[in-house]
Specification:
Elements: E1 4-9, H1 13-23, E2 28-34, H2 38-48, E3 51-52, H3 56-60, E4 65-68, H4 75-84, E5 88-92, H5 99-111, E6 116-119, H6 126-131, H7 133-136, E7 142-148, H8 160-175, E8 180-188, E9 197-204, E10 209-215, E11 222-228, E12 232-237, E13 242-247, H9 250-253, H10 264-270, H11 274-278, E14 281-285, H12 291-305, H13 313-329
Parallel strand pairs: 1-2, 1-4, 2-3, 4-5, 5-6, 7-10
Antiparallel strand pairs: 7-11, 8-9, 9-10, 11-12, 12-13, 13-14
Helix pairs in contact: 4-5, 5-13, 8-13
């Protein structure tokens, strides 16, 4: 197989983005699009010079893989239908709206020898790729993840845990080398329907603690994660693709500033410049990254070259399992 015959299911905002990334690739042939809103599908098909299909069944007969970009509550129904047709899938996040449905999709994919990845685009952020090594080292860390936006009137079929927090859950759970010991959570609904603000605290067996805050009722957008250990801190800004790294000096690590070693006279002398000299920081900013293009490339490589995905469905399903436990505590 030298190219991938792909269909887009869902002609909305995300479906349009995915269509543009697929159309730009030489190893992907964009066959067509299906949406219950035919006018939207026609506009997308015209823009990217592909076909409009009248039914999901008709589309499935012509493709090897599909992007599922329908509303979250329809992910399971749509994905299960396509998997039974042995169609490989890139499903927008959240994978499904329940952990049990996600498990069923994993079983269907295995039974039908289909590949399945999930659209957690932050996995392709170069700042995260660098920063996550501190967590993977196994050293107990304190992780503080904050993700916020204004109310966009999108994803109103789910709350902020599955809309925003799921991004940071997936990232953290994919790299912490330990099982979860305890979960605490708090949240509330402001607009109505589902929670619009949520906080969760995950305590892991290896001593790592992750505090996650997600809100979609903020004036200022924010996508930041702070990862702290005894002698090192990394602050990741996902929006600007920036990492600020703070490292303790060798003198700090050697214990040369223990109370018994520092006289009052010495402390008065070293205090003004102590932080600058013993906890210096560096900042690294990465070039712009097209995460959706990277995601499409990843999906194509999984199918065409049998490479391992950055976001295999099993990984996304685990994040959904933990998200569901958080929701039960809110």
């Amino acid at each position: 197989m030298d190219h991938l015959k792909l269909g887009i299911v869902g002609a909305g905002r995300l479906g349009s983005f995915h269509a543009s990334k697929a159309a730009a690739r030489n190893d992907v042939e964009l066959i067509g699009v299906f949406d219950v809103n035919r006018s939207g599908a026609e506009k997308l098909a015209e823009k990217y010079r592909c076909r409009v299909f009248d039914s999901l069944t008709a589309l499935a007969e012509e493709i090897q893989a599909a992007v599922v970009a329908v509303p979250s509550v329809l992910h399971f129904e749509t994905a299960s239908f396509l998997l039974k047709k042995q169609i490989s899938l890139l499903i927008e996040k959240p994978m499904t709206t329940t952990a049990s449905d996600a498990k069923l999709l994993l079983e269907l994919a295995e039974k039908n020898n289909s590949q399945m990845t999930v659209g957690h685009t932050e996995e392709y952020n170069p700042a995260w790729i660098t920063a996550k090594s501190l967590i993977q080292s196994g050293v107990p860390c304190l992780i503080d993840a904050r993700r916020a936006s204004g109310y966009t009137f999108r994803s109103t079929d789910i709350g902020v845990v599955l809309d925003l927090m799921i991004h940071d859950l997936e990232l953290i759970l994919s790299v912490v080398p330990s099982k979860i010991l305890k979960i605490d959570a708090f949240g509330f609904s402001t607009i109505g329907g589902f929670e619009d603000f949520a906080q969760a605290r995950l305590t892991f067996e290896n001593g790592t603690v992750a505090n996650l805050t997600a809100s979609r009722i903020e004036h200022d957008a924010e996508r930041v994660m702070k990862i702290s250990s005894a002698y090192q801190t990394r602050i990741v800004n996902f929006a600007t693709r920036t990492i600020r790294s703070i490292h303790a000096s060798d003198d700090v690590k050697a214990g040369r500033f223990l109370p018994d070693h520092v006289s009052p006279e010495m402390s008065a002398e070293i205090q003004p410049d102590f932080m600058a000299e013993n906890f210096p920081f560096s900042e690294l900013t990465y070039d712009s990254c097209d995460a959706l293009a990277e995601e499409m490339a990843d999906f194509a490589n999984v199918i065409l070259h049998r490479q391992k995905s950055n976001v295999p469905a099993s990984q996304a399903a685990y994040a959904l399992e933990v998200a569901e436990k958080i929701l039960k505590l809110i």
